Amino acid sequence: MTAPHASVLLGEVVDSLNLAPGRLVVDGTFGAGGYSRAFLDAGADVIAIDRDPTAARFAAPLKASHPDRFRLVQGRFSDLEQHLADCGHSHCDGVALDLGVSSMQLDEAERGFSFMRDGPLDMRMSADGRSAADIVNEDEPGDLARIFWIYGEERASRRIAAFIARRRAEQPFTRTLDLAEVIERAVGGRKGAPTHPATRVFQALRIAVNEELAELEAGLDAAERALGEGGRLAVVTFHSLEDRIVKAFFTERAGKTPMGSRHLPQVQQGPAPSFELLFKGVLAPSDIETFENPRARSAKLRAAERTSAPAWRLAA
To answer: Which end of the chain is more exposed for a tag (fewer CB within 10 A), N or C?
Structure first.
Protein backbone atom coordinates (compact mmCIF):
# COMPACT_ATOMS: atom_id res chain seq x y z
CA MET A 1 0.00 0.00 0.00
CA THR A 2 1.33 3.46 -0.90
CA ALA A 3 1.50 5.74 2.09
CA PRO A 4 -0.48 8.99 1.65
CA HIS A 5 1.77 10.95 3.97
CA ALA A 6 5.23 12.42 3.39
CA SER A 7 7.37 12.19 6.52
CA VAL A 8 8.81 15.61 7.29
CA LEU A 9 12.54 16.14 7.96
CA LEU A 10 13.03 12.42 7.41
CA GLY A 11 16.77 12.54 6.68
CA GLU A 12 17.44 14.89 9.57
CA VAL A 13 15.53 12.68 12.00
CA VAL A 14 17.38 9.55 10.87
CA ASP A 15 20.74 11.32 11.21
CA SER A 16 19.81 12.65 14.68
CA LEU A 17 19.00 9.19 15.99
CA ASN A 18 22.41 7.75 15.01
CA LEU A 19 20.84 4.47 13.92
CA ALA A 20 22.76 1.24 13.41
CA PRO A 21 22.04 -2.51 13.22
CA GLY A 22 20.96 -3.86 16.57
CA ARG A 23 19.81 -0.53 17.98
CA LEU A 24 16.17 -0.39 19.14
CA VAL A 25 14.17 2.72 18.26
CA VAL A 26 10.60 3.63 19.21
CA ASP A 27 8.59 5.39 16.52
CA GLY A 28 6.07 6.98 18.85
CA THR A 29 3.84 8.34 16.09
CA PHE A 30 3.74 5.65 13.40
CA GLY A 31 1.16 7.27 11.11
CA ALA A 32 1.69 5.86 7.63
CA GLY A 33 5.05 4.37 8.58
CA GLY A 34 7.47 6.70 6.82
CA TYR A 35 9.85 7.06 9.75
CA SER A 36 9.63 3.38 10.69
CA ARG A 37 10.49 2.38 7.14
CA ALA A 38 13.56 4.62 7.14
CA PHE A 39 14.65 3.34 10.56
CA LEU A 40 14.39 -0.25 9.35
CA ASP A 41 16.34 0.61 6.20
CA ALA A 42 19.08 2.00 8.47
CA GLY A 43 19.30 -1.37 10.21
CA ALA A 44 17.53 -0.56 13.45
CA ASP A 45 14.86 -2.64 15.16
CA VAL A 46 11.58 -0.72 15.48
CA ILE A 47 8.70 -0.70 17.92
CA ALA A 48 6.06 1.62 16.48
CA ILE A 49 3.19 3.14 18.45
CA ASP A 50 0.01 4.80 17.21
CA ARG A 51 -3.25 5.51 19.01
CA ASP A 52 -5.11 5.57 15.68
CA PRO A 53 -6.41 2.05 14.90
CA THR A 54 -6.49 2.81 11.17
CA ALA A 55 -2.68 3.09 11.12
CA ALA A 56 -2.45 -0.71 11.25
CA ARG A 57 -3.16 -0.92 7.51
CA PHE A 58 0.29 0.57 6.81
CA ALA A 59 2.09 -1.82 9.14
CA ALA A 60 1.50 -5.06 7.21
CA PRO A 61 4.15 -4.44 4.50
CA LEU A 62 6.78 -3.55 7.11
CA LYS A 63 5.93 -6.58 9.22
CA ALA A 64 6.11 -8.80 6.12
CA SER A 65 9.52 -7.49 5.06
CA HIS A 66 10.97 -7.28 8.58
CA PRO A 67 9.10 -9.89 10.67
CA ASP A 68 11.72 -10.04 13.44
CA ARG A 69 12.60 -6.34 13.55
CA PHE A 70 9.27 -4.51 13.44
CA ARG A 71 6.22 -4.41 15.68
CA LEU A 72 3.25 -2.01 15.79
CA VAL A 73 1.46 -1.37 19.08
CA GLN A 74 -1.84 0.49 19.32
CA GLY A 75 -1.76 2.98 22.17
CA ARG A 76 -0.40 6.29 23.39
CA PHE A 77 3.29 7.13 23.13
CA SER A 78 3.16 8.40 26.72
CA ASP A 79 2.83 4.71 27.69
CA LEU A 80 5.98 3.75 25.77
CA GLU A 81 7.63 2.22 28.86
CA GLN A 82 4.75 -0.23 29.17
CA HIS A 83 4.81 -0.90 25.43
CA LEU A 84 8.54 -1.65 25.64
CA ALA A 85 7.98 -4.01 28.56
CA ASP A 86 5.19 -5.79 26.69
CA CYS A 87 7.65 -6.33 23.83
CA GLY A 88 10.29 -7.70 26.20
CA HIS A 89 12.53 -4.63 26.55
CA SER A 90 13.49 -2.47 29.50
CA HIS A 91 14.94 0.43 27.52
CA CYS A 92 15.56 1.64 23.98
CA ASP A 93 18.26 3.44 21.97
CA GLY A 94 16.10 6.03 20.26
CA VAL A 95 12.69 7.68 20.32
CA ALA A 96 11.15 9.68 17.48
CA LEU A 97 7.99 11.78 17.77
CA ASP A 98 6.31 13.43 14.79
CA LEU A 99 3.61 15.50 16.44
CA GLY A 100 0.23 16.72 15.33
CA VAL A 101 -2.25 15.41 12.82
CA SER A 102 -1.07 13.42 9.82
CA SER A 103 -1.81 14.21 6.19
CA MET A 104 -3.89 11.06 5.87
CA GLN A 105 -6.10 12.12 8.78
CA LEU A 106 -6.61 15.55 7.24
CA ASP A 107 -7.36 14.07 3.84
CA GLU A 108 -9.98 11.61 5.08
CA ALA A 109 -13.21 13.59 5.43
CA GLU A 110 -14.85 10.97 7.64
CA ARG A 111 -12.31 11.69 10.41
CA GLY A 112 -13.55 15.27 10.76
CA PHE A 113 -10.14 16.90 11.20
CA SER A 114 -10.39 19.33 8.31
CA PHE A 115 -12.81 22.06 7.23
CA MET A 116 -11.61 21.68 3.65
CA ARG A 117 -13.86 18.62 3.20
CA ASP A 118 -17.25 18.08 4.76
CA GLY A 119 -17.38 15.28 7.29
CA PRO A 120 -18.60 14.37 10.76
CA LEU A 121 -17.29 16.68 13.46
CA ASP A 122 -15.16 14.04 15.19
CA MET A 123 -11.35 14.65 15.32
CA ARG A 124 -10.59 11.70 17.61
CA MET A 125 -7.30 9.98 16.82
CA SER A 126 -8.59 6.90 18.62
CA ALA A 127 -12.14 5.60 18.72
CA ASP A 128 -12.92 6.58 22.31
CA GLY A 129 -13.51 9.73 24.33
CA ARG A 130 -15.36 12.93 23.55
CA SER A 131 -15.54 14.10 19.97
CA ALA A 132 -15.24 17.67 18.71
CA ALA A 133 -19.02 17.72 18.28
CA ASP A 134 -19.43 16.80 21.96
CA ILE A 135 -17.24 19.72 23.02
CA VAL A 136 -18.83 22.24 20.66
CA ASN A 137 -22.38 21.26 21.58
CA GLU A 138 -21.97 20.68 25.32
CA ASP A 139 -19.29 22.94 26.81
CA GLU A 140 -20.14 26.34 28.26
CA PRO A 141 -19.29 29.34 26.03
CA GLY A 142 -16.60 30.44 28.49
CA ASP A 143 -14.96 27.03 28.37
CA LEU A 144 -15.07 27.03 24.56
CA ALA A 145 -13.48 30.47 24.48
CA ARG A 146 -10.65 29.25 26.73
CA ILE A 147 -10.04 26.25 24.48
CA PHE A 148 -9.92 28.46 21.37
CA TRP A 149 -7.62 30.99 23.07
CA ILE A 150 -5.22 28.63 24.85
CA TYR A 151 -4.90 25.89 22.21
CA GLY A 152 -5.55 27.94 19.08
CA GLU A 153 -4.32 31.40 20.13
CA GLU A 154 -7.53 32.69 18.53
CA ARG A 155 -8.02 36.39 19.29
CA ALA A 156 -11.74 36.28 18.54
CA SER A 157 -12.28 33.31 20.85
CA ARG A 158 -15.13 34.84 22.88
CA ARG A 159 -17.01 36.11 19.85
CA ILE A 160 -16.71 32.74 18.10
CA ALA A 161 -17.85 30.89 21.22
CA ALA A 162 -20.89 33.19 21.48
CA PHE A 163 -21.83 32.56 17.85
CA ILE A 164 -21.49 28.81 18.37
CA ALA A 165 -23.66 28.89 21.50
CA ARG A 166 -26.44 30.81 19.73
CA ARG A 167 -26.44 28.50 16.73
CA ARG A 168 -26.34 25.23 18.68
CA ALA A 169 -29.41 26.31 20.65
CA GLU A 170 -31.30 26.06 17.36
CA GLN A 171 -29.51 23.05 15.88
CA PRO A 172 -26.52 21.03 17.20
CA PHE A 173 -23.33 20.92 15.18
CA THR A 174 -22.60 17.60 13.46
CA ARG A 175 -20.54 18.52 10.36
CA THR A 176 -17.18 20.20 9.83
CA LEU A 177 -18.25 22.64 7.12
CA ASP A 178 -21.23 23.75 9.18
CA LEU A 179 -18.94 24.74 12.07
CA ALA A 180 -16.43 26.38 9.70
CA GLU A 181 -19.18 28.53 8.16
CA VAL A 182 -20.37 29.74 11.57
CA ILE A 183 -16.79 30.62 12.57
CA GLU A 184 -16.37 32.53 9.32
CA ARG A 185 -19.52 34.52 10.02
CA ALA A 186 -18.39 35.21 13.58
CA VAL A 187 -15.19 36.92 12.43
CA GLY A 188 -16.86 38.77 9.58
CA GLY A 189 -15.66 36.69 6.64
CA ARG A 190 -12.22 36.00 5.26
CA LYS A 191 -11.27 39.60 4.40
CA GLY A 192 -8.36 38.46 2.28
CA ALA A 193 -6.77 36.45 5.10
CA PRO A 194 -4.12 33.96 3.88
CA THR A 195 -5.62 31.19 6.03
CA HIS A 196 -9.22 30.18 6.61
CA PRO A 197 -10.79 31.84 9.69
CA ALA A 198 -11.56 28.40 11.15
CA THR A 199 -7.94 27.23 11.12
CA ARG A 200 -7.07 28.13 14.71
CA VAL A 201 -10.39 26.91 16.15
CA PHE A 202 -10.07 23.54 14.41
CA GLN A 203 -6.51 23.21 15.72
CA ALA A 204 -7.70 24.03 19.23
CA LEU A 205 -10.52 21.50 19.10
CA ARG A 206 -8.20 18.78 17.80
CA ILE A 207 -5.72 19.42 20.61
CA ALA A 208 -8.49 19.42 23.22
CA VAL A 209 -10.17 16.27 21.90
CA ASN A 210 -6.92 14.29 21.90
CA GLU A 211 -5.31 15.93 24.96
CA GLU A 212 -2.26 16.44 22.79
CA LEU A 213 -0.24 18.80 24.99
CA ALA A 214 -0.63 16.69 28.13
CA GLU A 215 0.22 13.62 26.05
CA LEU A 216 3.35 15.36 24.76
CA GLU A 217 4.56 16.33 28.23
CA ALA A 218 3.99 12.80 29.54
CA GLY A 219 5.62 11.31 26.44
CA LEU A 220 8.78 13.36 26.82
CA ASP A 221 9.11 12.28 30.45
CA ALA A 222 8.55 8.65 29.45
CA ALA A 223 11.19 8.87 26.74
CA GLU A 224 13.69 10.25 29.26
CA ARG A 225 13.11 7.24 31.51
CA ALA A 226 13.13 4.69 28.67
CA LEU A 227 16.27 5.81 26.84
CA GLY A 228 19.56 4.21 27.78
CA GLU A 229 22.81 6.18 28.03
CA GLY A 230 23.70 7.46 24.56
CA GLY A 231 20.13 7.02 23.33
CA ARG A 232 18.69 9.79 21.18
CA LEU A 233 15.35 11.64 21.30
CA ALA A 234 14.17 13.47 18.16
CA VAL A 235 10.94 15.50 18.14
CA VAL A 236 9.30 17.21 15.16
CA THR A 237 6.74 19.90 15.99
CA PHE A 238 4.38 21.85 13.76
CA HIS A 239 3.09 24.73 15.86
CA SER A 240 4.34 27.02 18.61
CA LEU A 241 2.43 25.38 21.47
CA GLU A 242 4.15 22.04 20.86
CA ASP A 243 7.54 23.58 20.21
CA ARG A 244 7.48 25.63 23.42
CA ILE A 245 6.90 22.45 25.44
CA VAL A 246 9.69 20.55 23.66
CA LYS A 247 12.09 23.49 23.88
CA ALA A 248 11.42 23.93 27.61
CA PHE A 249 11.91 20.20 28.23
CA PHE A 250 15.25 20.02 26.42
CA THR A 251 16.46 23.32 27.89
CA GLU A 252 15.72 22.18 31.42
CA ARG A 253 16.96 18.62 31.07
CA ALA A 254 20.17 19.77 29.38
CA GLY A 255 20.90 22.16 32.24
CA LYS A 256 20.57 25.20 30.00
CA THR A 257 18.12 27.17 32.14
CA PRO A 258 19.29 30.74 32.89
CA MET A 259 21.50 31.11 35.94
CA GLY A 260 20.54 33.47 38.73
CA SER A 261 22.04 36.97 38.89
CA ARG A 262 24.91 37.64 41.30
CA HIS A 263 22.71 40.42 42.71
CA LEU A 264 19.93 37.94 43.57
CA PRO A 265 19.80 34.95 45.94
CA GLN A 266 21.62 31.88 44.63
CA VAL A 267 19.44 29.57 42.53
CA GLN A 268 19.44 26.05 43.95
CA GLN A 269 21.35 23.57 41.82
CA GLY A 270 19.02 21.13 40.05
CA PRO A 271 19.56 17.49 39.11
CA ALA A 272 22.41 16.54 36.79
CA PRO A 273 21.55 17.05 33.10
CA SER A 274 19.83 14.00 31.67
CA PHE A 275 20.23 15.15 28.04
CA GLU A 276 22.89 16.80 25.92
CA LEU A 277 21.60 18.87 23.00
CA LEU A 278 22.73 17.62 19.59
CA PHE A 279 22.57 21.08 18.03
CA LYS A 280 21.61 24.59 19.04
CA GLY A 281 18.06 25.68 18.30
CA VAL A 282 16.06 23.82 15.68
CA LEU A 283 16.48 22.26 12.26
CA ALA A 284 13.91 23.37 9.68
CA PRO A 285 12.95 21.81 6.33
CA SER A 286 14.91 22.84 3.26
CA ASP A 287 13.37 25.04 0.59
CA ILE A 288 13.16 22.00 -1.64
CA GLU A 289 11.21 20.01 0.96
CA THR A 290 8.74 22.82 1.64
CA PHE A 291 8.23 23.29 -2.10
CA GLU A 292 7.51 19.60 -2.57
CA ASN A 293 5.48 19.32 0.64
CA PRO A 294 3.90 22.64 1.72
CA ARG A 295 2.68 21.06 4.97
CA ALA A 296 6.33 20.87 6.08
CA ARG A 297 6.82 24.63 6.13
CA SER A 298 6.16 25.06 9.87
CA ALA A 299 8.05 21.95 11.01
CA LYS A 300 10.90 22.15 13.54
CA LEU A 301 13.21 19.40 14.74
CA ARG A 302 14.84 19.35 18.17
CA ALA A 303 17.04 16.47 19.29
CA ALA A 304 19.23 15.45 22.21
CA GLU A 305 21.28 12.53 23.53
CA ARG A 306 20.66 10.83 26.86
CA THR A 307 23.41 11.16 29.43
CA SER A 308 24.26 8.70 32.22
CA ALA A 309 22.40 10.84 34.81
CA PRO A 310 19.18 9.47 36.31
CA ALA A 311 15.88 10.65 34.86
CA TRP A 312 14.54 13.68 36.65
CA ARG A 313 11.90 12.96 39.26
CA LEU A 314 8.53 14.41 38.31
CA ALA A 315 6.99 17.02 40.55
CA ALA A 316 4.22 15.69 42.77
So the answer is: C
Angle at 106 between CA 100 and CA 108, to 5 degrees: 140
Write out pLDDT tens, residues 237-257: 999 999 999 999 999 999 988
Whole-number Å distance between alpha carbons of 105 and 113: 7
The string of pLDDT tens digits covering residues 125-142 is: 887 889 999 999 999 999
Number of domains in the chain: 2
Residue 112: predicted pLDDT: 47
Does one domain contain both 14 and 100?
A: yes
Report pLDDT for 3. 45
Are both 94 and 112 inside the same structural domain? no
125 vs 143, which has greater pLDDT? 143
Q: Which domain holds residue 60?
A: 10-104+212-306
The secondary structure of the chain, three-state, reads CCCCCCCCCHHHHHHHHCCCCCCEEEECCCCCCHHHHHHHHCCCEEEEEECCHHHHHHCHHHHHHCCCCEEEEECCHHHHHHHHHHCCCCCEEEEEEECCCCHHHHHCHHHCCCCCCCCECCCCCCCCCCCHHHHHHHCCHHHHHHHHHHHHCCCCHHHHHHHHHHHHHHCCCCEHHHHHHHHHHHCCCCCCCCCCCCHHHHHHHHHHHHCHHHHHHHHHHHHHHHEEEEEEEEEEECCHHHHHHHHHHHHHHCCCCCCCCCCCCCCCCCCCCCEEECCCCCECCCHHHHHHCHHHCCCEEEEEEECCCCCCCCCC
